[in-house]
Design a protein that fits this description.
The complex is a heterodimer. Chain A is an alpha+beta fold. Chain A contains 16 helices and 14 strands. Chain A has helices at 37-41, 71-79, 107-119, 121-125, 128-142, 150-155, 157-167, 174-186, 191-215, 223-229, 239-253, 255-270, 272-280, 285-295, 326-329, 364-381, and strands spanning 56-59, 65-68, 84-85, 147-149, 231-232, 235-236, 300-305, 309-311, 314-316, 321-325, 386-387, 395-396, 402-403, 407-409. By secondary structure, chain B is of the alpha+beta class. Chain B is built from two helices and three strands. Chain B starts with 15 loop residues before the first strand and ends with a strand. Classes of the chains: A alpha+beta, B alpha+beta.
């Protein structure tokens, strides 16, 4: 642990807990990935100074947790599901039971297989035309102005619209969905914030529960009916289980693509030479997206330790929480030569933003399709853009690190 | 054994240089292989690799196949080199 690493406690809401006996004092480093000013100043690059000297540390905040920094360790944890359980899906742990992300194998597999088909690449490909149509509609709404807030007017709306379409949710209620989503995922801290979170959770659960019940019985021609018609280990799926799955899709499907678009466009707005590469050669876009996902790997995953064990040179105890910042793994120079060079032709590029092991992001193919089609469509129409002069871009932390705003300007079309 | 389906791969004129196998215990459906070479790295309807064992690779396919094998975040593929004469 380097010098000066224990001075970053910046918020009062994340109380410092007692340090357990099995944690070496020199490995204590208070990280507040939700509200810490030092973290939010440079949320993805936060790890760059820590990783070379520090393989693992313990943050006493948010109930206390281990944090790994290196690719090989994080990759191994993702694959070792017996020792590193997914039963709590957040730091601090979230009470909602999300199916199947909060299950471990073999139970996980029974639910996962139900969701795999509708999210497999061939099925996602069929959504391409819809995604392009939605992207064009959004661009139409601001291209005449020559400026927009990319986050509010594009990055938030596109995945939400696609998600509504996928589930058959009424698009006119999109603003309400976004408000629930935002409260549950991004508000964290004081008692008032937690009360709002609980309320949003309850409202969303009640809404989705009613929505699922309303789908009733019928041919399995949409996602909800597919879930309701599915069997789990030889019995029909229960309403509560379908709710757990739809809830998860809701939590995982909106925010993440928004973040991917935000980080990608911020980089492209600031790097005209990279942007020109994809304008000149749109076939480079899939590979460019993988590289942007690697460099801005905005997912901070977590697991719970199931038995006392030695890992990354320390003793971990049953019940300890462990944070797996893919933003750190994916800039590890042991895995990625010259990690701070953004190379749209990087090969190989086995980044971990979609995790690895049985919990590999179910929506990864949908996410890739949305970002790819957005990038193709946008750059055909708006090849030249930049961040507005004097604009201050703000970030939020948590499990999904993203941009709050991205004001950009371009020649009006 | 399934033959490579790439239209341009003509086994008669393009010799087999190696074979590739998938370990289905490891494959988690990232589909990075499919993304790079969809005709060769086919998927089942849940999105997992179904290329099986010792799928022949022609000289023409070789570079792309190796690239796709290296792209797998689970390291689920093994390449078996052909003995050279």
């Amino acid at each position: 642990m380097g010098e000066g690493m224990t001075e970053s406690l910046t918020t009062q809401d994340a109380a410092v807990g007692e340090i357990p006996d099995h944690v070496p004092p020199e490995l204590v480093h208070p990280l507040d990935q939700w509200n810490g000013a030092d973290f939010l100043a440079n949320p993805i690059g936060y790890w760059d100074d820590i990783r070379p000297s520090t393989r693992v540390f313990w943050s006493p905040l948010h109930g206390g947790f281990w944090c790994l920094t290196r690719y090989a360790d994080i990759h191994e944890v993702f694959q070792r599901t017996d020792d590193f359980s997914s039963r709590l899906t957040n730091i601090p742990g979230r009470k909602v039971r999300l199916l199947p992300i909060s299950l471990d194998p073999p139970e996980h597999r029974s639910y996962r297989r139900v969701l795999n088909r509708p999210f497999a690449p061939p099925r996602i490909e069929q959504l391409g035309v819809k995604i392009e149509h939605r992207a064009n509609e959004l661009i139409d709404s601001f291209i005449g102005r020559g400026e927009c807030d990319f986050m509010a007017e594009f990055a938030v709306k596109l995945p939400t619209q696609i998600f509504c379409e996928l589930l058959g949710l009424p698009p006119e209620e999109m603003d309400q969905f976004l408000e629930w989503n935002n409260t549950i995922l991004h508000v964290h801290g004081d008692a008032e914030g937690q009360a709002r979170q609980t309320q949003a959770n309850e409202e969303l659960s009640a809404y989705l529960s009613q929505f699922i019940a309303g789908r009733g019985e019928g041919p399995a021609d949409d996602l909800v009916r597919t879930l309701l018609a599915a069997d789990v280990d030889g019995r029909p799926m229960a309403h509560e289980e379908a709710l757990g799955m739809v809830y998860l899709l809701f939590m995982a499907g909106l925010d993440t693509v928004t973040a991917a678009l935000g980080w990608g466009w911020q980089f492209l707005a600031e790097h005209p030479e990279h942007r020109q590469q994809i304008v000149d050669d749109p076939e480079l876009i899939p590979s460019a997206i993988e590289e942007l996902l690697r460099y801005y790997s905005f997912l901070e995953d977590s697991r719970t330790i199931t038995r006392d064990l030695e890992f990354a040179g320390v003793t971990m105890k049953e019940g300890d929480r462990i944070m797996l910042p893919t933003s750190s793994a994916d800039r590890d120079e042991e895995q990625f030569p010259d990690p701070h060079t953004v190379d749209f032709r990087r090969d190989p590029n086995r980044h971990l933003i979609f995790a690895a092991g049985p919990h590999r992001c179910l929506g990864s193919h949908l996410a890739r399709a949305e970002v790819r089609i957005a990038m193709e469509t946008w750059h055909r129409r708006i090849p030249d853009y930049r961040i507005q002069e004097g604009a201050q871009v703000h970030y939020h932390g948590g499990a999904v690190i993203g941009l709050d705003n991205l004001p950009i300007g371009f020649p009006a079309g | 054994m399934e033959r490579p389906t790439t239209a341009s791969a003509d086994a008669a004129t393009d010799p087999i240089v190696c074979t590739v196998s998938v370990n289905n215990e490891r494959c988690q459906g990232h589909a990075r292989c499919w993304q790079l070479l969809p005709d060769f790295f086919t998927l089942d309807d849940e999105g997992y690799s179904n290329i099986g064992e010792n799928k022949p690779v022609t000289a023409e396919q070789e570079a792309k196949v190796r690239q796709a094998v290296n792209a797998c975040p689970e390291l689920a593929f093994t390449i078996h080199e052909r003995e050279t004469d």
